[in-house]
């Protein structure tokens, strides 16, 4: 009787980040009112700023120089993100009855790679600079192509990119540029941030931000019987996108391959929710909270598994 709990504790001990996000998901689902209050007051955006900055200061300046050599991988990931993934989310959305929930699932593949995928790439020991490159490229592609693709897929879309651009500048571009500048281009801070202690603090901060993000997203999830088809469709989308990400990195060195796996399989639920609400109304954003919890748990678990495999 004690074998399974002991085994489960050992497994979670080997992946502390996974333990943290699972605990956060449980807290978010059970303490929804105060966490929902924070989420409604830009709590998710604030956590994303912390997460992006903490991840940016862990990016080795040498990795930025290697990014130019990996441009083919970055371009391939961005192209898959604006062609294959939208088609995939459209296909799995057919599993959900017509209505706002189907519209929300359909939008999932249009989102750029998840901002947290840069952090999970770093946790996996992958090439965080490649992940950052895919993040920037996929975000630009979403801003330019989301409206026409939605119109093509759904026959209707009232999406305007202006608000999305402003939001992404605040929560991605500014903290990413600030973190990279302090780590790479300002000599005084570069020396401090290069120390093992500073890197450990930044890594722990990123983990804490991911866990807090999971809690806030989970607070927005209200499960009903009608979500069974939604959960199945989103699980299928997540599994298929992971297969695509693995295929993209199959001929790459392990650090770049890990980045491609995680950035391709993790799509940004917050941006997807914004797209769904703008194009189809607020009810269409409902499934994206469920996807957000699932994708953050998946990314954290995958990062831990990759790191453990490399350490062996």
* Average residue pLDDT: 85
Strand content: under 5%
Taking all Cα atoms into account, the compactness measure Rg is 19 Å
Major β-sheet, in short?
A: none
Total of helices:
16
Instruction: Give me the strand/helix succession.
Output: HHHHHHHHHHHHHHHH
Please tally the β strands and state the result.
Answer: 0
* Percent in helix: over 70%
Large-scale geometry: globular
Contiguous low-pLDDT stretches (5 residues minimum) are none
Structural class: mainly alpha
Q: Give the N-to-C terminal Cα separation.
A: 30 Å
Explain what the structure shows.
It is a single chain. This protein has helices spanning 3-14, 16-30, 32-40, 43-56, 61-67, 71-93, 100-107, 116-123, 128-154, 162-184, 187-193, 196-218, 227-248, 254-265, 269-280, 286-311. The chain is mainly α and 312 residues long. α4 packs parallel to α10 (162-184), α6 (71-93) packs parallel to α9 (128-154) and α9 runs parallel beside α14. The radius of gyration is 19 Å and the shape is globular. 51% of the residues are buried.
Short description:
The protein is mostly helical and 312 residues long. The protein contains 16 helices and no strands.
């Amino acid at each position: 009787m004690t074998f399974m709990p002991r085994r489960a504790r050992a497994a979670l001990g080997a992946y502390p980040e996974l333990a943290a996000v699972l605990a956060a998901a449980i807290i978010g689902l059970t303490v929804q009112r105060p966490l929902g209050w924070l989420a409604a007051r830009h709590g998710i955006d604030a956590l994303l700023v912390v997460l992006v900055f903490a991840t940016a200061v862990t990016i080795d300046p040498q990795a930025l120089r290697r990014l130019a050599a990996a441009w083919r991988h970055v371009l391939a990931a961005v192209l898959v993100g604006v062609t294959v993934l939208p088609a995939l989310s459209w296909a799995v959305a057919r599993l959900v009855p017509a209505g706002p929930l189907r519209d929300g699932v359909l939008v999932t593949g249009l989102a750029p790679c998840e901002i947290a995928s840069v952090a999970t790439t770093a946790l996996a020991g992958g090439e965080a600079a490649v992940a950052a490159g895919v993040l920037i490229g996929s975000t630009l592609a979403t801003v330019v192509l989301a409206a026409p693709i939605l119109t093509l897929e759904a026959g209707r879309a009232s999406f305007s990119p202006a608000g999305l651009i402003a939001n992404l500048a605040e929560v991605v571009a500014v903290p990413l540029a600030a973190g990279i500048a302090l780590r790479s281009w300002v000599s005084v801070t570069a020396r401090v941030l290069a120390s093992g202690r500073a890197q450990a603090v930044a890594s722990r901060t990123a983990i804490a931000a991911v866990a807090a993000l999971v809690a806030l997203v989970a607070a927005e999830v209200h499960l009903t019987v009608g979500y069974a088809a939604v959960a199945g469709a989103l699980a299928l989308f997540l599994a298929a996108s992971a297969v695509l990400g693995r295929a993209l990195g199959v001929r790459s060195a392990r650090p770049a391959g890990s980045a491609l796996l995680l950035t391709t399989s993790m799509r940004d639920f917050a941006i997807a929710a914004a797209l769904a609400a703008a194009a189809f109304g607020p009810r269409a954003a409902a499934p994206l909270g469920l996807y957000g919890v699932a994708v953050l748990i998946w990314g954290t678990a995958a990062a831990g598994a990759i790191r453990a495999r490399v350490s062996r």
